[in-house]
Amino acid sequence: MSIKHADEYRDAEIARRLVTTIRKTSHRPVQLMEVCGTHTVSIFRHGIRDVLPPTIKLLSGPGCPVCVTAQQEIDAFIAYARQEDTIVATFGDLLRVPGTHSSLQMEKAEGRDIRVVYSAFDAVKLAAGNPDQRVVFLGVGFETTAPTIAASILAARDMDLDNFLVLSAHKTVPNALEALMADDAVAIDGFLLPGHVSVILGLAAYRPFFERHKVPAVVAGFEPADILEAVRRLVVQVESGAPQLDNAYPRAVSETGNAKAREVLDQVFEPVEAQWRGIGVIPASGLAIREALGRFDAARRMPIEVPAVREPAGCGCGDILTGAKSPPECKLYRKACTPENPVGPCMVSSEGTCAAYYRYHG
After folding, report:
1. What angle is formed at CA 264 by the lines to CA 262 and CA 268, rounded to 5 degrees?
2. pLDDT tens-digit readout, 91-115
3. By residue range, what is the domain housing residue 79?
């Protein structure tokens, strides 16, 4: 047996033992929510829902950054793409997200200069190579991508690039947990906390939330055994009535996280209220570029007026992001809304719940 196959066999054995333990331990109905898009995809891909006992219901939360980007922000992205002497640089997931009247993909087909990049530093290079045009990078993501975008702004400052701008639509996770707990539509008995975000923030970032709500919360990795171990720990907490803030991903997540990344974040961004699709305005859950670096802020340098916003008619993405609905409960799912013709962002993004459900529950 090769080393690779031996590792796979070992991991499968660990997963099987965890499933057996969970089935023996879980007696009362429980709803657990993952708030990480990578967790959502992994859970669907590996059929984790199918092996859990009927007492456990896994809910997919607002863990997809493209999905929680508000309709008004999508419309703003499109408006910037229509500006003269402007190149819009974006990650690929945003291209096909429908706005009220258009999408970045449609604007690109109409001749707008929209470029897909793989990092914010690609956009910095784009600005350096096109000094006669403004390059607007669309900043979307959680604490995982925000530090690199912050670093790109500092790099542009050091290069004295006046034509590099960032339109920040970043969201932060901890305050979103507060909003989910305040939502009466869904009763959440425990959280699988996001692995990648927690690498940056550390376990300590969730302590204020946990102390307020005393809800079971476990940081999870991304392999099937990682997720099942986190579920096991959550079930034990629920069954024993002893909630904890726990770390089931210690090989990557520490108590304090990545101090350097947080330092860069704090240097460039400051917390502001933000609009989340399906949730509404959450205080201090967005990141705005600080005034000292305002020359790189597209919202300051290029203020624009966004036309009246209209949510996609009949789209259940908002309810799906809060766990109030599953994709099949949306009346557009697999009918008007498919990956080839998405109506809402939950079907567009690779981390979207609808896209994952469609792909792995065909």
Report:
1. 115
2. 999 999 999 999 999 999 999 999 9
3. 28-314
